[in-house]
Amino acid sequence: MTEMKRNGSRSQDKADPNHPPAARPVSGPVFVVGVWRSGTSLLYALLNQHPDMGLFYEGDLAVLRPMFHISYSRKNWLRRWEYWNAGVSRHRLESLQPSPSIASLAEATEAAGREYCRMKGARIWGCKSPSYYDRLLKLAHDFPQARFVVIWRDPEDICVSIRNAAAHSRWFAGRGMIRRAILACEMLKKQCDTLVSRGVPVHQIHYQELVGDPAKTMRGVCQFLDVPFVPAVTSLEGADRGAVFEGGHHSLVKGTQIVSSRKRRGTLPPRIEKKVRQYKALWKAEIGEKWMLCRYLSDPSDTLPGRWERTTDRLLFSLLRLKDTAPRVAYSLLPLWVWICYRWVKYHHQPFSDKPSPKRRQQYVADRPDS
Question: Among 21, 97, 130, 287, which is disulfide-ready with 36 (CB 3.0 to 4.6 Å)?
Fold first, then answer.
């Protein structure tokens, strides 16, 4: 669970919720997905510059699916969503009055998305979230008209970015984050392949293409979404980052220039570097350039991960996914007052913060190897 202050920066020409623009026919959804630290926030900021687009920033209602199977939780879904990650206030949806008849995740998500589009004057709703990397198939089932934009990035760059972000974020400082990110690439690919085989619209781009030639890359995205290309989607100037969480790890997306984080790239501890490069070599050998991720891989290892290492990694990855799922299920099912008390005790009367503990921060600053 995360609950953070909003970034105050907003474009001067964004819609005023008190004086919404005239309604336009609304369609959707569009889901922007990638592994953590792969450029999803940059893609979100650029795409939301388009007047037709109204994307949530990590709304993550879809991870709270069990909430809609329990009547008392379903009735309070809007309040629970706000308490989970400030999804309502971050997107300025305080005026949303959902229908009492809403009975499913799909209905709730669409109601919120349409309201956000109405306020913004947009016509295509959707959401950007790395948390959807393992649930694309469920989203496609819930939303038969959904389209997916998937962004890939060299996993070594992802791991470097995660370690840099760990100094600012409790989530990225958590144990097992490196293994989670590496194996999430494989999971996301399997989900993408299945969607494509079923004829679901999927558009895939690479982070290196996005930062290297934003105009060409965003033209392709606009064409896929069947919206006219506008120059605004190639620049962060005037972008509304009001829904983006606070934290130094979001400094690039909150800037005004599209800057590759490779320019600020650090180094990985030898053990982590060896693991990620072995997986890069494995993917390149087994899949090759049919996978967009493999087209831009640098410095793969001369050796592949052993069978025992791969089996162990997959087992631990399954446990990490279970660890991610457990609090979401518990949050969806238990009375809200339980979580209010839990947070009150955990944070000792202080507002919630995603900052890592001083001990964990010191460990990462010292480049402590992570599993």
Answer: 130
